[in-house]
Amino acid sequence: MGMGMIFICFLQEIMQIYITNKTFVYFYSLMLKLNTNDIVNFLSKLTLNRVWNASKMFSSFFLSRVLKRPIVWGFPVSLSVEPTTACNLSCPECPSGLKSFTRPTGTIKLDFFKETIDAVHKELIYLSFYFQGEPFLHKGFLDMVSYASSKGIYTATSTNAHFLTDEVAKKTILSGIDRLIISIDGVTQEIYEQYRVGGQVSKVLDGAKRILKWKKELKSKTPFVVFQFLVVRPNEHQINEVKQLAKEIGADDIWFKTAQIYDFENDPNNLIPTNDAYSRYKKNDEGVTVQKNQLQNHCWKMWHSNVITWDGKVVPCCFDKDAQHVLGNLQQTSMKEIWGNEQYANFRKELMQGRKNIDICSNCSEGLKVWSS
Ligand code: SF4
Question: Which residues line ligand 1 (CB under 6 A)?
Answer without folding.
Answer: 299, 301-302, 316-317, 319, 355, 360-361, 364, 366
